[in-house]
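Quick start: what a row looks like.
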Amino acid sequence: MVNPGKRMHILQEMLAIRHGPGAAILPPEITRIHMDFAKKWNNGHLGPRRFWKDCLPRLKFWNPAVPMLVNRTEDQSAPAKMSIYFRQAALDANKPSALMSKMNSLPLAQQPHSSTENECPAPPPEEGERVVTIDMKDVRSDVILDEFMAKTGATKVEPTPDEQAELAAIERRRQRAAADRAIMKKYLEDRKEEDRMLAMARQEAEAIKLANQ
């Protein structure tokens, strides 16, 4: 049987991936998403990194069938760009696209994949696709998300009433834990100061004792 603390931690993790920035359902015409940015945060790449860390996992959770690749580079002067690929409106969303047919014919090692060595930059659109880009360099992650939502037409996922209650309870527990940590920190600091003062008093007493001998 899972203990209550562990069960609550699992629930908190589930709610964190289900709701928050990036929790959205993409329209069926989106075929894939590609992000290109540098490995480190400086030179304008902090916003893209935060979007990747905070928003992309939720997008993937709600849209597991949409490939989402991240290509990073050592070059901090490189652009930071998101490419969103759309299926042409005239094509049937239920039929395999030229992209998927092509990918399925390739060996696994040759298929597009995320990379930390700039191995898979954003490709040109395939037949039956169009691409829309977002310039992410020097842009905050929340602004990137707003532009992403506008350009994709994604639908934000709202928590159910039960989930809202759980989220509120988690926030209350978080605040209580923060308050408890602050109290404990002050207690330990006070104890440390008392120990320091006591040590000083003992040293002074020992010095006086030696002086009177």
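That is the whole record. The chain has five helices and six strands. The mean pLDDT is 83.
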